[in-house]
Design brief:
With 61 residues, the protein is mostly helical. It is built from 2 helices and no strands. It starts with a helix and ends in a 27-residue tail after the last helix.
Length: 61
């Protein structure tokens, strides 16, 4: 019986993982509906690079 519960838990985790990987927009909407989304920090717009994440000292990568 306990083996069945462990297998069910592993299958559920795998399903959630692949849902997030294959359908990120749907997974995001589902997370938002469930109220488990992460709070993201607002990134200030950097001049001349469109606020890319690879900027160092004002220069784009």
């Amino acid at each position: 019986m306990i083996q069945s519960l462990i297998v069910l838990a592993l299958v559920a985790v795998a399903l959630l993982f692949w849902l997030n990987r294959l359908f990120p927009a749907h997974a995001t909407r589902l997370k938002r509906q469930l109220g488990i989304t992460k709070k993201t920090a607002q990134i200030d717009a950097k001049k001349g690079c469109g606020s890319c994440s690879g900027c160092k000292g004002g220069d784009c990568h």
